[in-house]
Fold this protein.
Amino acid sequence: MKSKHAQVHFNESGTPVADHFDDVYFSNDSGIDETQHVFIEGNDLPSRWLTWTKPTFVIAETGFGTGLNFLVTMRAFRTFRKTNPAHPLKHLYFITTEKFPLPPKDMKRALSAFPALKEESDALGDKYPMGLEGCHRLDFPEFTTTLDLWIGDVHALLPQWHSPMHGLVDAWFLDGFAPSKNPDMWTEALFSQMARLSKKGTTFGTFTAAGIVKRGLAAVGFNIKKRNGFGRKRDMLTGEFDDTHENVPQKLRTPLGPYYRFSTTLNTEKDHVIVVGSGLAAASVCLSLTKRGINTTLCFDGDTPATGASGNPQGGFYPQLHSEASIASRLQAHSFLYAKQYYHDILHHHPQVPHAFCGVIQLSFNDNVATRQSKLAASEVWPDALVRHVTEAEVSQKANIALPYSGLWIEQGGWLSPPSLVNAMLSQASASGLLTIKANHRYVSHCVAGKDIQRSSADNNETQDTVKVMFDVCDRAHHDTEKTEVTIEAQHVILALGAGATAADEFSSLPLRPVRGQVEAIPSQAPLSDLCTVLCHKGYMTPAMDGRHALGSTYVKNDLSTEVCEVETQTNLNTHKQALENTNLIADLSHDGTARAATRLGSPDHQPVVGTMHDFNALKKEYSELGQGKPLQQTPLLPRSGISTLTCLGSRGLTTAPLMAEVLVSGLCAEPLPLNNDLLNAVNTSRFMTRQAIRGE
Ligand code: SAM
């Protein structure tokens, strides 16, 4: 999971050279001009962008290196957008792989040779991820560009990219050291994956004119052209994909993952989406929709947002990691890293949101936990920048309180105030002019007009069906107790109801697990007032906000009540007393009984539930052959659906909501998905149905 960094030195021209490959990252003559010539002009980007009719353009690169190609392209795209503000092409996706990420200091040094790219380099430098395998989605809103930086080997990663039937990528930047220096990369497997992911008319550009590349790409359906190379190179190759060519390996184009994403495609220009919910999940979905230019209406019951599980004044923000790179841990790690930069951007515009990225300590408060933590520290699975073992002395120094335990230190973690954060996210989404917020709208039901919906692969640009969503409207703020029923029409509805889902018929075929949680708001007092990091053990406590510390939490299954109860106050205090019995932190704590209780919604496997909704009980019959060993790939696509959900975030919404919203909305728009296939499958709405069908239930 932790990746190996590149080892580089700088040659006499100041160009970085990879020790392992003995090759330069870019031309000694002029890196920027080389990118412009080989990749930007090699793919005819400026002229193709001008005639492009879709809202997004997807570039895929092999070998991110210093990021120079990306920066030059992002700059060119900004120039294009500035010159053509009304153009339908609005957003650039740049998806790239890197097996050996450059250490940040080498990257900075390499890019300092290009002062013309300072703004772009600084933006990348601010977000450049730690060396953790998997997808790092980095948003650059000021450049209307998203970078999906996939850390790992291109051969392992390209098969993870989920493609609509008509392809995903519009242009390829084939970089990655010369074939003579890096023969393992330039293989048939790479060219086949390129064919799988390309569309009719997808182009490529590469600095090399090697026969193996020319023949390999021709063999999978690219028409190849030779052009003048850059600098001292005589030739280079460009080409265009012909999906009807007899060489195209058709079987490769079958969707890989079993869960059939991209079964529904929104038209971002025209479609209207209703989001129902008021917490972190709903607010994240609204931001993901509006940043894609989608007209969005948010409806919720009650006068204000964040009245459910996202209403606690303080929430700890950190990933829950195991010593192995399990699916659950990888989801946590990537969600956390995405959420960190996402909140950073929001806090930049809304600094009033109470928060502190003060670090989180997971205390090794008993022998079992100490053993688990030592295993994690020894496993070397996670970068130190994400989590590292700290001694008792370090724990006390970081917490600013004497604590007789060692622990795990999550430097980038901390706490935020979810209700204030939700309001900031909604205000950011509203700034797009695309979000309408309707309070006091209680979701009742929905129906999809046009029952005879054909199964589609989402490639056919069919117009969406209309979804009619019924609400009870009751303006309690003005003491109006009369309910009126209101219908709002849209092309899609996303239910982010949290615990409210337990009462909605749409969720009857999903296994939902509501869990009540009470959190104490303890008046700040010595010695607790000195605490300056979040402390986790069996429970958690935070530094003070507005003179109170959060101290939580209880877990009571299937309890939907939200009244504060004394028994749970005692449970919370006892949990802390037991875990911290060797300290003076809790024993004499005085509490005035202020607390808050809410119901979080979880799932049986504790992972979020993200994706389109169906009557899974009915669908299970269609998938029953899975129980007799039929491969998932050969079972039918999921039907089209006018309804999706983002739910079951449990008590981890602060960590998971932003990335899960990106997964959902990227899927609805048939855009690149920011997770590996196994992680996508682990969160998809259809996983329970599929597992039951496989088990023959
Ligand atoms: N595009 C880069 C830039 O703008 O700086 C230059 C790329 S450099 C010539 C080639 C990059 O490909 C290196 O960073 C190298 O680590 C990466 N690479 C080589 N083999 C790879 C593989 N099998 N999978 C992923 N990345 C690989």
About this structure: DSSP finds 18 helices and 32 strands in the chain. The first helix runs from residue 31 to 41. Residues 451-461 have pLDDT under 50 and may be disordered. Residues 6, 25-26, 63-69, 97-100, 153-154, 175-177, 182, 185 surround S-adenosylmethionine (CB under 6 Å).
